[in-house]
Amino acid sequence: MNCIKCGVNVPENQVFCDACLADMENYPVKPDITVTLPQRKEAPVSKKKSRRQRNIPPEEQLRRVKTKLRLAHLTLAVVFICFLLVAAMLLQYLQS
Ligand SMILES: [Zn+2]
């Protein structure tokens, strides 16, 4: 996202950069004056976003898959341990 006044790169959802905001503080607008902001094209931004997501390098994709797999294995291990604990408790309960 760029400042619509000077074009400097600003964070998402911000219309003006901090320099322009500070500059505008020096020229306050009267309360009865309507200010219209120029229309901002939304489509190219979202297109760029999705393209950026598609262009993930293979090493990064592999790393993400490995992380997901590790998480799945960990979840499976925790579920299995819980199952073993419940089975052991049930056995003890049945024997007593
Ligand atoms: Zn600016």
Please provide a written account of the structure:
The protein has 2 domains: 1-55, no CATH class; 57-96. The chain is built from 3 helices and no strands. It has helices spanning 18-25, 43-54, 58-95. 1% of the residues are buried. The mean pLDDT is 85. Bound molecules: zinc ion (ZN). Residues 3, 5-6, 8, 16-17, 19-20 line the site of zinc ion.
Give the helix/strand layout.
Elements: H1 18-25, H2 43-54, H3 58-95
This protein binds zinc ion (ZN).
The site of zinc ion has 8 residues, from α1.
Determine the structural class based on helices, strands and strand pairing: mainly alpha
Q: What's the structural domain tally?
A: 2
Strand count, sense and barrel status of the largest sheet are: none
- Can you give the mean pLDDT? 85
Please compute the radius of gyration using only Cα atoms: 28 Å
Straight-line distance between termini? 69 Å
User: What is the approximate shape?
Assistant: elongated
Number of helices: 3
Order of helices and strands: HHH
Oligomer: single chain
Bound molecules: zinc ion
Uncertain segments of ≥5 residues (pLDDT<50)? none
